[in-house]
Amino acid sequence: MCDTMVVPPAVSGGAMLFAKNSDREGSEAQVIEVHRRRRAAPGAMLHATYLSLPEVYETAAVLICRPYWMWGAEMGVNEHGLAIGNEAVFSRVRPAKDAAPALSGMDLVRLGLERARSAESAVAVITTLVERYGQGADGGHSRPFHYDSAFLIADSRDAFVVETAGQHWAVERVTGARAISNAYSIHGRFERLSGNAKAFAVERGWARADAPFDFARAFADPFRSFAARGRQRACRARGLIDAQAAKGSVHLRDLMGVLRDHGPRGHRAGWRPDGLLPSSICAHGGHGPARRAAQTTMSLVAALDRALSEIWATGGSAPCTALFRPFFIETGLPVAEPAPTDRADGACLWWRQERLHRAVIQDHGSRLALYAPARDALEVALMAEIERARAAAADRPAAERRHLLSQVGQAAWTVAEDALARWTRIAEDGPIARRPGALFRYHWRHLAKRAHTQPM
């Protein structure tokens, strides 16, 4: 289960800030990719995860984070400073057994990033595609998992929430800090609504024709929404952001802290990352009913700017154990690596970070404490260096700017890799004073067997 949030300039005191934790199955590796602009010939077709659709003449350059096996993306940023992230939400609308292939929520994220230059235009792209092709295609990795999607869409000036149920949708403009999760949140304050959404709900007895229309109340499946714990996590994220805003401003480091949050109990001595329901923003998997989407497998934060967005991502699981690294769309990735799969492979960043994650969760409190202060200090130093580089690059010719940013990005990658290797050795050698519960250990032994890696 995922969590996405945005902090507008009026709240942050600076840029529009965007952040997301992508929660998927354990061992469902994700890859960070940069795709350049591309042009297509008339009549060219684009092959998404499950269906093909007409390509557009030109796409934007994008940085995306996607599960290794699908075309679509969990989240991303494009060259115009547009960011999109999606959430699984659970509606009463059930796809017909003989329904045609549809788009997944992740397909819609990537299509919005590639085809739009602003948040407003991304809303139009996504809602048009939902009405034409439908959505809710299978998003499961090891077994089928169908759901509808909610989207948080932001650029440097505007932000919107789009929520869908089948081919129906609602749009709400964001006016303050906003967090969405695995629960419908658009009630009666929608700015736009698909043409027959209310009539469809009234026909099925989910709404009254003579009463104000509440999109969330009409379409949400109450049982699955409760099990996903999305409302609780969204409230927690919003509370943390509001508390920081009350101090005067909100920065990217603050959103990194929100993505690392384990809830009120996470600060208590002896806290362990196990449990049956996905109740914390930073999730570590488990054997509960939401285990198919209960591990944070990638995290991203960004300060959105049409000229040069500031983008940071973990490259792997569990932001509480990971270092956020800088990325620039115009320079591409600092290092070329093979794409990961669901089999352990130390040549891939995702699996190198996963090795550290799996070492830490054997005794989260004790082992994380061995290197977290050094991680935090390095993150602060890297952010200061990137800020200096962005300022220096602002007025340079394009070629010089790319060269400068490329050098800084590669240097940051080298430092991050050295630190990751060192912290992994420290964590693996650390003592274990308090192991997780038996069901949690069973879950992770099962994942280790599937990934051909060392068991917990």
Automatic annotation (TrEMBL):
What keywords does the record list, in alphabetical order? Dipeptidase, Hydrolase, Protease
GO terms of biological process kind: proteolysis
Which Gene3D superfamilies would you find in this protein's record?
Penicillin V Acylase, Chain A
GO molecular function annotation = cysteine-type exopeptidase activity; dipeptidase activity
* UniProt entry tagged with the keyword Protease: yes
Entry's EC annotation: 3.4.-.-
Pfam families, per database record: Peptidase_C69 (PF03577)
Q: Which reaction does it catalyse?
A: an L-aminoacyl-L-amino acid + H2O = 2 an L-alpha-amino acid
> Which PANTHER family does the entry link to?
LD30995P, SECERNIN
Family indicated by similarity: Belongs to the peptidase C69 family.
* Protein's name according to its UniProt entry: Dipeptidase
